[in-house]
Amino acid sequence: MRYDDIEHLAAHLRTRRSNILSTWRRKVDLDASVSASATLARAQFIDHIPKILDAFDRRLRARDSIEAQDAAADERAGAAEHGINRWLHGYDYRETMREWGHLQVALTDEIERFTQVNERLDPIAMSAARRNATQLFVDCVVESAVGHASLQQAEATNRLADLERVLEQLKVVEQDRAKRLHEVTHDLRGNVTAVKVAAGVLMRKDTSSAPTAVLAIQSSAEALGSLLNDLVEVTRLEAGRESRVIATVDIAALLQDMIASFQPTAAENNLFLTIAGPNSLLVSSDAKKLQRIIQNLLVNALKYTERGGVQVTFGIVDNAEIPSWSCSISDTGTGFSENGVSLAQVLVAATDEDASVAGQASGETLVSASAMSPVSTGTGEGIGLVIVKRLCELLDATIELHSPAGRGTTFRLVFPMRYAVSTV
Questions:
Q1: How many domains does the chain have?
Q2: 101 and 223 share a domain?
Q3: Does residue 378 contact residue 320 with C-beta atoms inside 8 Å?
């Protein structure tokens, strides 16, 4: 191989470098898929390319493998720095790779122009020069890709760390909020108890002529006390202070006992209260929390049903992905005012009404948001439904609401037959 021809080519490329870089910039500017380049000044655009071309010049003229390897190492280092620079200027992976492609075309065209002008060049020397040019851009593409990938990974890692910190802060705030809410409701419940006791003393002194104000105090205190008891239970659930205690439960026996305890209330209001299901159904569950769920739904169903009655049905769920059983509480009341109303809407509207009850009991004048809502619930059921929802979450149960307008309401609960562990 004639090294003089290689030296001649290297000198030509040094002389034509400014033209090579200008041609490269024009090709990039005409490429609509490389939009980020338009924001760069010439110095920013050229970046590390002269350093890379200097290393390529040394590799072309290298007379031994050590010189060639050192030059190639400098090429790769410059390419890595260029890739990082492009990433910092908003280039994506595709834009950077297309830029390298345009630079390769500009350099290759200049080599071919040199070959055409000089007819007596050594073919072996020119073949080696072309191989070096090809290897240059292979190395540049690889190093830029590695640089892009490492920066993207670092950015993703930082984002994940930021999100984890934010989530941890939110967790702390939520725990603090739940703790403070629990403390406040605990104090309020103590104050309400004191009011109830005082009102009871006044009533015992002169029951026949008890002032209207005393009766109002006692009634409001009882209503607020009941509401605060429910609120305390909600805050305990939200604060994670409740756990499920799993044991074998005969659902048939549990529900039959509950129906029997509610029969006097149903009879007093001329309503039927029936139950349908197998004579025995053994499942793993938390009996106390199940009773609380069913009790809240039964209380609401009986309270807001004027004619007809309430039916409870239960049994094994067929074709379920995991073994499950269900319980439905259906009433013949007016239902909610719109078809397709969601459980979330009911919870929002009903909870607003409970806030109104609390305000009236404490002597404040509040306007219930549900008064303006298309969802009609009954005053006092909101917190009870929130408790039902939270307890269902604790027991890994789903809750569905079906309430065609004027055709009653059905709450359907689906529970797993078994749990992986005995307590949570």
A1: 3
A2: no
A3: no
Same domain, 407 and 266: yes
Q: Per residue in 112-162, pLDDT tens?
A: 999 888 878 888 888 888 888 888 888 888 888 887 777 767 766 766 776
Asked if 218 and 361 touch (Cβ cutoff 8 Å), the reply is no
* Structure confidence at residue 1 (pLDDT): 63
Last residue of a domain, one of 125, 144, 164: 164
Please check whether residue 421 lies inside any domain of the structure: no
Same domain membership, residue 400 and residue 268: yes
3-state secondary structure (DSSP) of residue 362 = coil
CATH code at 182?
1.10.287
State whether 12 and 151 are in the same domain: yes
Q: Verify that 141 and 273 share a domain, yes or no.
A: no
- CATH code, domain with 327: 3.30.565.10
Output the pTM of the full model: 0.45
